[in-house]
Write the structure tokens for this entry.
Amino acid sequence: MAALLGAMLLPLLLARGVIALNLPDGDQWSIGEAFLAWGYGALNDLIAIALLSTIIGVAGCVGRRAMHTAMTASVAACVVVSLLDVFFWFEFGNRTDRLVFHYLNYPVEVWAFLEDQFVFSLLIVPIAVAAALLHRALSNSAVALATTSRSTLSMALTPIATMTLIVVTVTEPAPLRPTMSRATNEAASNGILNVVHAALVAERRWHGVFPALDLTDRELLMTETQAAPAAQAPRHVILIIEESFAGDTWWDGDKRRKFMPNFDRLRNEGVYFDRLYATGTRTTRGLEALLHGYPPLPGIALNQRAGFEALPSLPRALAAAGFDTAFVYGGWPGFSNFANYWRGIGFRDVVTRDDFDSEHFQTSWGVADEVLFDRVLEEMDRRTGVEGRRVFLSTLTVSNHRPYDFPDGRIEFPADERRLEYAIAYADWALGRFMQLASRRAWYDQTLFVIMPDHSPRAHGGAVIPVAAYRVPGIIIWPGGLAATQRDGIASLMDVPRTILSAMGIASDEQFFGGDMLAVDFNGVAPVEHDYRLGLLTQQGFTVLLRNERAVSFAGDGMNDARPLRANASDERRATALFQSAFERWQGGRSTMRASVVPGA
């Protein structure tokens, strides 16, 4: 038994040690926080092991072989999830979470990534050998446990199984969290409990989980707007969605000049938004905001759920106004159901990786950005060549994504080192090249270029929701009609659909949340989601709605403050009004998605 428990516990402890030694920049533990992380971490590990031990015991009631297999699977689960925890920490800034279920839906694409990044096929034989040796090593423990009669096991397991069933049915079991510090909680947690929590959390519940307002209070806090036709407007729109753009590389002045000179130049050619925020840390979240103008809700993005067609839709609004709509993407058409999703929300044509010649440079995620942008130019040339046609074309880049591969000889940095900063530099080069080539086209002066990230590279910081890490740079350029300027008010990617419609002078019955970022003195709010928690950033501060707990507030952006205040009634009502209204409209379908902007926007 001791060997079995040690085999399960050891990888969990090692993963915690790696995370503890690689905290986010600027986030340091006090002695008390370190004690809490390791103390609560031990409890979480024991809870996870208890769950696995229950499975082993149940298998023992079936027979020794079943118990032996369950023991091997339990130890393997601890090893695999611990490795995933370390990978997730360095890649996303958190432990294994609900994203694992998303990836399991797309095994072909995930396999291509693993093969490209880790040559996973070479590891299959060593993994199989390790599993066989592990199974053999646990043989003696299985024999020892098998000497316990089945009736004794059954008597011991009955109350445990009953309590587990009650806990799973009545609550949403989650890892114990000792503080309001995200980094401390992540170190104390473990991926096994995170995955169990993600599988059991009730995404369809609001009342009894989050603060709630009655209908009257919500309506008092919500307002409705309608886009007014403009006297002059661009003819075409190109929405460029830059993958993982650009985090500390942009906000650090020295790195910006070194790795992002083109984007730095472009911000002086259009309207640059300095306090713009993504709504989450996944591409699907970015699309949810940019194409649907919808705030994030707990769980996966709404455009990944059944019924996504009911969401307000920017391409559908522009198609109804007579635009030719197309999405150009160099990645896998089936990943995240992208191709079907884009067609389902109003893009008439969808170009994917399958539509590019195999001779072009490709990574495991898709074609290089320069190849993608060349196709955008071709599509715009062809589509605008039809007299009287107006075009809305959107595109999503993939080069600034692990494994950070890009063509050699394009920038001054070596392509074979696979560094994040070099991938950003290539993405910046490809964007600058595209804008230069576009400037020679007849349609250039008549086009509104909306250049937005989907999210920043990763979450970091000690706050319960690190909202400052969601800050992203965005630019809107209309060569024929927008003067270059910088906007310093708070804005959200959720504001983009209404902004585009207003700029184009189009009134639509597609009812988006958000406001017009180009309006004079616009100062909105930024809704964000992280780990099933919801936050709203306003000029007054940052308010977080916690599951089954009282709302809390932070001064400023609350990036590293782990000592929140109890939210005042006004801030809590404002955040609740937005998120509860969005939740109930989604639950009610298209008929309830009435026009709304963020309260106070």
